[in-house]
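Researcher: Last one for today. Full complex below.
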Amino acid sequence: MSADRREWPLYEVFVRGKRGLNHVHVGSLHAADDAMAVRHARDVYTRRNEGVSIWVVRADAITASSPDEKDPMFAPSGDKVYRHPTFYDIPDNVPHM
Amino acid sequence: MNDEYAGDSSQWAFGTGFEDPLAGVDTTVPPGVDPAELAAYCLMLGDDALVMAQRLSEWCSRAPDLEEDIALANMALDLLGQARLLLSRAAAADPGVVPALPEGSPVPAEDALAFFRDAERFRNVRLAEVENGDFAHVVVRLLLFSVARLALLERLRASPDQVLAAVAAKGVKEITYHRDWAGRWFLTLAQGTEESRRRLEAALDALWPYQAELVAPHTGFGVDPATLRDEVDVVLDQVLAVSGVERPDRPPLSGTGRDGAHTAALASLLAEMQVVARAHPSGRW
Amino acid sequence: MTTTPAEPEALEAAFEATIARHDRIEPRDWMPDAYRRTLVRQMAQHAHSEIIGMQPEGAWIGRAPSLRRKAILLAKVQDEAGHGLYLYSACETLGVSRAELTELLLTGRQKYSSIFNYPTLSYADVGTIGWLVDGAAICNQVPLCRTSYGPYGRAMIRICKEESFHQRQGYELLMTMMRGTDAQRAMVQESVNRFWWPALMMFGPPDADSPNSARSMAWGIKRNSNDELRQKFVDMTVPQAEALGVTLPDPDLRWNEERGHHDFGEPDWEELAAVIRGDGPCNAQRMAHRRAAHEDGAWVREAASAFAAKAGAR
Ligand SMILES: [Fe+2]
Ligand SMILES: [Fe+2]
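Model: Here's the assembly. Have a good evening.
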């Protein structure tokens, strides 16, 4: 693709909702460097006071297990973590209609 | 209407008390404080915040990236919140500052002050009102503004007026972030590319003459901004040194927005900001 | 890797079984190419709509008639930027970058919701958009929280939580204006008249003319048909309009006891087709605005990348 070759790298964001809880994956964003990623995470993912602490990590620094080792189509892509893995918690208050 | 999603209201942008920013707050003016002086001081700081928020919000949907769009809106929202509290404080301290509206108008005092005063009655610094430029311009404007405002709010946390002290305490946290955002972008643009450095220096040059107004003397109630001059200079010099940018050699502009002597930019800013409110002086929103 | 290649049929069967159990497909699972393509198209179009959707309301932030309304509107439009961001991120789990998607939007190869090609002419439009447009969006989006693709569903959950604030603030603005002056009441009615039909069109063409719908439903990407959702929206909105004291501009709108639903008139599908083609009142303006923001920001994005590279090298 001819699009912006200088696109800022993708970061995964983890937020600790309150003291005593784990950091939970909440989503991702783009930033030029780690410091900017933390600021962006604060602005994007804690606009409504959802967190007391933030972790950010470059998506390409994550190593993930293959979902199914018998699956050859995706065995080679174990390092492509822009296909982010799934640490999301689904909130309890989402109704199943 | 989807009540099931409301859940815990603390996660929403607006909690209780959003209608009247000073709901439930004791607004009695402390003994020994002149109400008119207190009101004048709050108007000055409130107008700074309001006019800055208006300029910052013009960036909405125009930022270089979605993440920065959200960041700029956050800062505008912080300043808008400060403006509401400070204008309400001014009105509560001295109702005489609030413009008269038609009999029975439901417009609250903060809005009467924001939407029904003409430019010459605004007390903001001119740095806040000049027209937006490129991204370097908003970075420099925010840097100059937040360095001075943070120094001031830090002192005002000990204000004899409890309302102002509380507003300052909240504001310190917000402006600390704004200063950090602007400082980091200043450094980034200074050392990024040739173009970013050129644009940054141009913005700094254009805005520098407005800087002195932020630390001009003020007599009467409140912390005198002039007493913060050295502190502000030290911080600015640090940012400039780290970024490898020269302090511009440009004299301060004469006159001051604090006396109502504004640039033409304020009148056009207000013409837009006030147009709907003024068309409906008895309207409810 | 030493694993033996699985048969394509086995992979497909595993995929179908996951869908049949109403379980979620996750980014690293095998999926049919057409499923991936459909998802990227739908999520990207949705993301673009959030971003372009900032403009019609964003135009009124500067003119909001009270400081409270200014804060609410700015926070709302800011949320839409966040929604776009969440959805672009969901697309990125399928290996398509935000930069590529932006390029597709700016070159007109991907679309956004036609509703955002209508102009906003008064402050009442801020209320009407919140009530009807965000309301219609919620009807579309709540079922998508259960969509078969995990990252899409999770983005939708976050979005739906925020959307309910959007709809409420809009409805509350209209209610407040209806308690105001005659001029304000007239403004509300005029605005509702303009947005009612475009809002109905947000659910897309009638099921009979929606060729991709059936497959999307079979895959659990879509959970309800266009016509079902449109009906649901009408049924939900009619009592809200009554409570508000406005009329909806449809002479055929009435309760049908037998069906247990409201009957309503046919939207002008020609108009929808024209707006999608690019002949809506504001298509050119919306794209120009987006393009200018993107191009004006290029030097900033480059500077930050260059700075990060230099800092990394030190
Ligand atoms: Fe949205
Ligand atoms: Fe929305």
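The CA atoms of residues 126 and 234 of chain B lie 22 Å apart. Chain B touches chain A at residues 4-5, 7, 10-13, 65, 67, 70-71, 74, 177, 180-181, 184, 188 (CB under 8 Å).
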